[in-house]
Target: ACSF2
Amino acid sequence: MYPDGTFIIKGRTADAIRFKIFGDVVYPGPIEKIVSKYPGIKNVLVVGAKINDLIGDEITYCIRMHDGEKEPTDEELLEFCAQNGLDEIQRAARIIYFDSFPSTANGRKFSKKLLKQKVEEMLEKDSNVGMTKWFQDLNKEIYQINY
Model:
């Protein structure tokens, strides 16, 4: 803090995902808390990926399962989330499973910035990667796209 009472906060980035269709700002923390309760899930990070002018950031659940655990279908996971208090606007447009998450330079924490870059690289190779059925239906309605 400076003598005049002001201070500068460094190193913080916005953790909000703007999902324009519903006109709300969505925060990953509450989503991660609920998704992480699903049986067999080891870690979950939520990122906004593939920014779209009409829709905004696509809410992407990035999930690591415990060894030997079966990945749930998107319908099973989204139903579980809804039953545990997740709002419709917090639903995943994409659910992508990972063996590991990228870490920060010191290796102590997972890096959402690097994870988001990885997700965007995956989307460049395959624009349908991890797309949930409800999001496919939404795209069909908006863009008349058939999958």
